[in-house]
Amino acid sequence: MLLTNADLDHVLGLFLLREGAPLHIYATQAVFSVLETTLGLTRVLNSMCGTVCHEPPMDKLKPLLSSGNKGAGLSYRAIELPGQPPRFAPGSSGPHSVAYEFRDEQTGGKLLVAPDVAGLNEPFSKALAQADAVLFDGTFWAGDELSAIKPGAPSAEEIGHMTIQKESLPLLAGLRARQRIYIHINNTNPVLALGSAERRQVEAAGVVVGYDGLEFEL
Q: Best exposed site among 15, 30, 61, 109 by fewest CB in 10 Å?
């Protein structure tokens, strides 16, 4: 399991896997620290299935190895992104949000997975430009999406997400990647509605709204 951050919707599912084999968990030290001090993640799991913790490389691609060598043929690295720690762990330091870049060593194809993007930086922008497939943060269509439903709710920017409408759709539309796919889509996002004007804008730009069972080749 590769963790991009310590947000609850990214990590709580790990507790549901406690009855199986030891879990190989990949995350930055900052994320591990938050999860251990606030949720006792490895302490709980080590009393049941056990864990094997890995800190991903961030300087260059290295082989991805896991139980049963299921990662054979893949190289990977984490790319630090702008972002704040979770609201339940204010003040903690370190890389709290990362994207993952993968390379298929047989084909040379590159995949970039980034479900939690507050903004761009040079390493991430370079990886976007070189990727053959991009899975990108599609949480919100607009910045005021939550407050339109619940007055006083934080904006997309305050939560740490680029919006599709003004930021990520023009970005993805300009990439050379053959596959450009939105993931991590909030249930308030109108792109989930087939036939909506927002969905049509996304599809017209050549970007796919992710769905269960979606497959593609690098």
A: 15
